Amino acid sequence: MRLNFFRAALLALLLPINVLAQTPKSYSAADIALGLRKLNILGSVLYIAAHPDDENTRLIAYMANGKLLETGYLSCTRGDGGQNLIGPELREQLGVIRTQELLAARRIDGGRQFFTRANDFGFSKTAEETFTIWDKEQVLSDMVWVIRQRRPDVLITRFPPDSRAGHGHHTASAMLAIEAFDAAGDPKRFPEQLKYVQAWQPKRLLWNTGSFFVKPGDDMSGYLSLDAGAYNALLGQSYGEIAARSRSQHKSQGFGAAATRGEALEYFQPLKGEKAAKDPFEGVDMSWNRVKGGAAVGKLIDEVIKKYDPANPAASVTGLLKVQKALDSLTPKSLSEDEFWVQQKKEQVKMLLRASLGLYLEATANSSTVVAGDKVPISIEITPRFQASRENPAVELLRIAYAGKDSAVKDMRLTSGRQLLLRKQLVLPSAAVLASQPYWLRTQGTVGMYSVEDQLGRGKPENDPASEVKLTFGIDGQVVEYTVPVQYKNTDPVEGEKYRPLTIVPPVAVNIGGRAYVFADNQPKTVPVTLRAGKAGVKGTLALTLPTGWKAEPASFSFDLAAKDAEQTVQFRVQPGAGAAEGKTELRAVATVEGQAYSRGYQAIQYNHIPTQTLFPEAVAPLVKLDLKRKGQEIGYLMGAGDEVPDALRQIGYNVTLLKEPDLTADNLRRFDAVLLGIRAYNTLDRLRFLQPVLLEYVQQGGNLIVQYTVNSRVVLPEIGPYPLKLSYDRVTVENAEVRFLQPKNPLLNTPNKITSRDFQGWVQEQGLYYPSSWDAHYQTIISSNDPGEKPKDSAILVTAYGKGHYMYTGLAFFRELPAGVPGAYRLLTNMISLGK
Hints:
This protein has 837 residues and is α/β, with parallel strands linked by helices. The chain folds into five domains: 27-40 and 288-354; 43-284, 3-Layer(aba) Sandwich (Rossmann fold); 360-428 and 466-496, Immunoglobulin-like (Sandwich), CATH 2.60.40; 506-625, Sandwich (Immunoglobulin-like); 634-834, 3-Layer(aba) Sandwich (Rossmann fold), CATH 3.40.50.880.
């Protein structure tokens, strides 16, 4: 056996790995049978939309498992601008969560996941507005790049290219798909990509219409259609059942879905390309005849399928090796369509060989984190698990490569059912300081775009592994290579085995406690800064970088962290001096170790439905000096979907008690000057339907109840106020839209703080959302604003006296503005809390 090993190692580094920190997959006999059938289908489809959750998971499940096509979903954004139903993470952190939720969905429905560099900056009402924030040419370039890489025969959009799409990002995704359809096939468009790929012209572009766009009784005779509701006997599920499990991975959006069974017609309207009479894939040759010399390969695969024995999958290995050998003889030397399909099918053959042999491969490190340049002990497990017989192939481990090193293990025969455990040591390159930061967050982008300089990196769903092991096997005289990511594995006493990505960390991480530091007077505040050691024996100094006029005690602090993962928190006393200007600025924490400055933190995002994600945010926090007066002291806060408003209120001196549903009693609430309900409380806390009378009694007895925005669907009770109000999708997305005062003398605008137009400057992402569209005459409206070209929206704040107290509903985005340190948001919310005091 001969192998150009180093050439193979280089190729392995260029191949993206899309499944990280997962239990190594075990394949059932049915999985293998489905994979063999897919080996004989040469067709590709790419679904295109704007956000996580926009995709039609039933159609993707059908295309990938029923039609057996190479199926992809291209989401323009990572969902960074949405709300979070399961925790406090927003913006970039939420984008990381939703990226992983999409990958979890694709592992269920069988699709592949891709992205552009577009940043989800929040709700947009028109494509025109979207393109003032997105760099349209860059997003189009990324879409073309994915099309040229994946060579789909058919493109499908989720949305129409007009206002019916209901969101500017939705409309923009369809408009871009129409342009990309032509641009992908034009070598004059984005010629820099042709160093790696060739121009590619899909056959047609279709719009997948749905219930949002088609009314019952509409004439669908002019549309193409297919039934995506069939039952897959090999998987034991209908595509509607698979789709429900897939869509239910979007947990941060609360999109748990019910399974469907039976007929499910999908309709398609042609947008571009060749016309089709009935079938969306009409005229697409999906057989091996589309590859020069491929007909013989198809016959070999037919033979493997015919002889496949689900009780003994290893009996198919000999036939699969023949297929692999035939594919090797077909390998083209140019970036042609033939090369794409030959490479795709070679990867599938490798997977099927591994699955048929029951070959378990795993590489684990003894720690979840490591500093670049350090040596990492790893364990490699290799266990073949096929039925032993004379007919089954001999398997040998030839050699191992890790971290660029070749560690030969020659002619080691593997015995079925017997575990081979190897202990090795790898060295991570010293240049990999930020390798574990999500690649799209490594450099500063803009409001609308992430920055990714590397052309080969664009479109990928996530980082490549921090480190990997390449294992080379000889199977009946043929060489097969597998690349295995190095992970960390531990056993949880409740959940059992859990995997985490191996994460490269800096020698010291610097975390600032809290989000914004707000100074309503010149009194000092404590700013805790926590140091975390990436390795043992880290010594250095820590200091705060402050704007002019501010001071901190101590000026610097010497630290010595003896153990890896050790933490030490330093309490700095920060206060504005006489020269500190009013308004918003920022502080930065910097640790210096051996002359090198480190100013990034360590943030692990942990949820059971996704692998642990680690971010390294800049160690900065807003500093806000403002003129603020307040009345009242005690605040009760009932958390809804999760936000950081309680910490922000503590910053300005309130005593905030986090409430649970059992705490909502008349006696307990009486002690609070105001009670606030967190975002989406009436969507997430089912018991509020029974506790609403208690809250209203609190208001009647003189309390202030402030309800933050509630989504107008899935509300736990019909009325959330003392008088009727109807929630809607109305919002003001332009964060700095002009605000008009409807009642200039109202206490909310005057007491204890005088609110002016200046207080609505510097807001982030959006002004507000889910405003009521109608309301009872008892409610007073306080302010009005609107997006360009729209009618005024007057219900950002609704307030009514009720008994001795006040009830207030607000859609203003305090949950975004307060953590961002927006001065006017603090002043306005303080007035709401102080009303009537």
